[in-house]
Amino acid sequence: MAKLYFNYSTMNAGKSTVLLQASHNYRERGMQTYLMTAAIDGRAGAGRIASRIGISEHADTFTPEDDVFAMIRSRLDKGSVACVFIDEAQFLSEAQVWQLARAVDDLDVPVLAYGLRVDFQGKLFPGSATLLALADEMREVRTICECGRKATMVIRRDETGKAITEGAQVQIGGNETYVSLCRKHWREAVGD
Ligand SMILES: [Zn+2]
Questions:
Q1: According to CATH, what is the number of the domain 4-142?
Q2: Residues marked as catalytic
Q3: How does residue 70 score in pLDDT terms, banded at 50, 70 and 90?
Q4: N or C end of the chain: smaller count of CB under 10 Å?
């Protein structure tokens, strides 16, 4: 029985690196994988999953309008796939996570989704909330705060380094940077 997996983390935990390594392990054994990532700038078509340590792979992109079940089924029609990998899974809609669950159940293909759990305001992304509800198995990709504790939160900083506490959940093309912190230091940074 195939399963739906959710590997969650905060920013800069290296989840894309973990994803690409896991996909590589299949391919090394002669098995095919199917890689998908979010078209966060709105452009569909060919995309890449890139890790901060310099490796990258081709991936198909999905927009909020895409039927990801149909995308997976169409890929399976072209040849067998040992595993589907999805990066930026926080950007999936609730309906798309259900489509992934149907792919797992009805097409019998394992789906490994990798994504951020919470945004800079400490709120669940819709895709992550639905994955937390529906996934068969969950695993945390861990990273640490500057104090050495596990980082579970992220702050959005402006050019001057000040934490931003308001704004859209998804910000594209700005000058903001993101820093992962433990909850205590996140609360200090946002003035709680
Ligand atoms: Zn800390």
A1: 3.40.50.300
A2: 88
A3: very high
A4: N
